[in-house]
């Protein structure tokens, strides 16, 4: 799992495979496309991107999405097999003739998580080389992608580690309880083993081993198990305990009111989506042409900053441009603008600290270097001592913490993944430390199994020998 993650489709994956928007193909304004839906309900989010070779507006209403083509105003109400096949083929960059299609009637190993339930039915397209692309018939979008290598890596890593077997994981509550209780039991047993090991350990070396004094009374596998347990038992405890914390067994204690403060700041920075008529002052086509053909936009979102309408253009490698409906485009908001907005939103609390983060630190780090830099750090003096990391390129909150989640950061990520910045900065130091601890953990488990088997074998032999 250190090097091979469970298969998923991220926002970065979508961008890397998405075609660039064609400004000349966009003929409708956002308001004109919205009218085609014949609804009075205002959208929460509007995005312009390419779909099946044509520009489309995607209007989001809560959990629901509606798609309208930006060239002729046609609404794509459903997604028949010929469209989803073209979508899957474009994603895999393979011929549609070679694909085998299956409409899933129930979850498989790669769509067993709850996030896929609202996207069903799902069509799975498989190519001879093992590539599999899953397309939702609800949204027409790729929702999962796997290869033979990715599936093999998951079966060797994430699936046994998370107990992520389909028949179990499809029942979310029993699966969650099993993981919590098994990791909790593992923590208790590891602590019990440590207590016994410390209790029998003799600093004065009152035992004998190989003709000399010894602190441990055992020989053979018991001796090795005792040495490994005393040396690495603490890590076994913390790994089991932090694994339990990953399931949020007490979510209110771990999170506090962080979601509430996040929503408050996000609303202040971006506000609600302005009236779509506000974007008539500069059409999406004009916005794209203003940037110029040298910069290819793959996604154009209708957004706002402090209530002012603007377009947020995203290109390759997650680069972005900000295009106001009045004025020239720019690459990021000023720190002063963002802090001024947050000062108003934070009341009655106040901002006690702000700084520009240009490299990863203790509460803002990423082993894969995916989190954006630089970001603005903001600290509040509210009751939970909330802090935020904000991307000035989008005015969006990237990460946030409060008193509760800081503890969770160290007790879960720190203890479970050795998620420490000083190790990440000097790789492969992190790799060496984690691999060494894993090797010690495997040795501890192997000696445990060998001792258990010797007891079982002895009892079986005893019973067999006393059978008439």
From the structure above, extract its key features:
468 residues, globular, Nuclear Transport Factor 2, Chain: A, six-stranded antiparallel sheet, alpha+beta, single chain
Architecture overview:
This protein is of the alpha+beta class and 468 residues long. It has a domain of 88 residues: Nuclear Transport Factor 2, Chain: A (Roll). 41% of the residues lie in helices and 20% in strands. A six-stranded antiparallel sheet has the order 3-2-1-10-11-12.
Write the layout of secondary structure elements.
Elements: H1 11-17, H2 30-35, E1 45-51, E2 54-61, E3 64-69, H3 81-92, E4 100-104, E5 122-126, E6 132-136, E7 142-146, H4 148-156, H5 158-162, H6 166-169, H7 172-200, E8 207-209, E9 212-214, H8 220-245, H9 251-255, H10 258-270, H11 284-291, E10 297-305, E11 308-315, E12 320-324, H12 335-346, E13 351-357, E14 375-380, E15 387-391, E16 396-401, H13 403-417, H14 421-424, H15 429-465
Antiparallel strand pairs: 1-2, 1-10, 2-3, 4-5, 5-6, 6-7, 8-9, 10-11, 11-12, 13-14, 14-15, 15-16
Helix pairs in contact: 7-8, 8-13, 8-15, 10-12
Strands of the largest sheet, in order across it?
3-2-1-10-11-12
Percent of sequence in beta strands: 15-25%
The CATH topology of the domain at 78-165 corresponds to Nuclear Transport Factor 2, Chain: A
Helix- and strand-based class?
alpha+beta
What is the number of helical segments per DSSP (H or I, 4+ residues)?
15
Largest beta-sheet details: 6 strands, antiparallel
Number of strands: 16
Q: What would you say the CATH architecture of the domain at 78-165 is?
A: Roll
Model regions low in confidence, pLDDT < 50 over at least 5 residues: none
Shape type: globular
């Amino acid at each position: 799992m250190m090097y091979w993650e469970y298969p998923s489709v991220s926002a970065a994956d979508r961008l890397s495979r998405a075609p660039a928007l064609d400004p000349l193909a966009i003929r409708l304004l956002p308001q004109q496309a919205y009218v085609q839906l014949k609804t009075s309900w205002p959208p929460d989010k509007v995005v312009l991107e390419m779909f099946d070779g044509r520009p489309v507006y995607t209007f989001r209403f809560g959990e629901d999405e509606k798609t309208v083509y930006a060239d002729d105003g046609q609404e794509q109400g459903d997604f028949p097999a010929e469209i989803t096949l073209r979508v899957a083929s474009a994603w895999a960059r393979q011929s549609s003739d070679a694909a085998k299609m299956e409409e899933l009637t129930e979850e498989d190993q790669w769509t067993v998580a709850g996030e896929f339930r609202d996207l069903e039915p799902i069509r799975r397209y498989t190519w001879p080389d093992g590539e599999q692309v899953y397309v939702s018939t609800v949204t027409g979008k790729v929702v999962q992608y796997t290869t033979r290598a990715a599936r093999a890596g998951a079966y060797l890593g994430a699936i046994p580690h998370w107990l992520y077997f389909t028949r179990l994981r499809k029942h979310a509550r029993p699966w969650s309880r099993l993981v919590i209780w098994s990791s909790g039991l593992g923590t208790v047993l590891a602590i019990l083993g440590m207590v016994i090991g410390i209790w029998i350990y003799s600093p004065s070396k009152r035992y004998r081993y190989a003709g000399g004094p010894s602190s441990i009374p055992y020989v053979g596998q018991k001796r090795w198990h005792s040495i490994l347990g005393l040396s690495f038992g603490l890590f076994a405890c913390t790994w089991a305990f932090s694994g339990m914390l990953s399931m949020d067994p007490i979510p209110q204690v771990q999170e506090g009111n962080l979601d509430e403060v996040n929503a408050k700041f996000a609303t202040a920075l971006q506000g609600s989506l302005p009236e779509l008529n506000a974007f008539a002052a500069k059409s999406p086509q004009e916005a794209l042409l203003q940037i110029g053909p040298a910069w290819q936009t793959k996604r154009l979102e209708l957004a706002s900053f402090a209530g002012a309408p603007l377009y947020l253009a995203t290109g390759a490698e997650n680069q972005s441009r900000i295009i106001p409906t009045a004025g020239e485009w720019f690459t990021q908001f000023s720190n002063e603008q963002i802090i001024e907005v947050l000062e108003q939103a934070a009341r009655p609390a106040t901002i006690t600290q702000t700084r520009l983060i240009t490299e990863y630190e203790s509460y803002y780090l990423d082993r894969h270097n995916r989190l954006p830099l630089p970001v603005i750090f903001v600290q509040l003096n509210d009751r939970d001592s909330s802090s935020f990391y904000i991307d000035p390129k989008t005015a969006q909150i990237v990460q946030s913490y409060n008193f509760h989640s800081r503890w969770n950061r160290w007790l879960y990520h720190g203890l479970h993944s050795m998620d420490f910045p000083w190790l990440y900065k000097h790789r492969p130091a992190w790799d060496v430390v984690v691999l060494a601890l894993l090797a010690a953990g495997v040795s501890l488990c192997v000696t445990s199994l060998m001792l258990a088997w010797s007891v079982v074998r002895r009892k079986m032999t005893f019973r067999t020998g006393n059978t008439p």
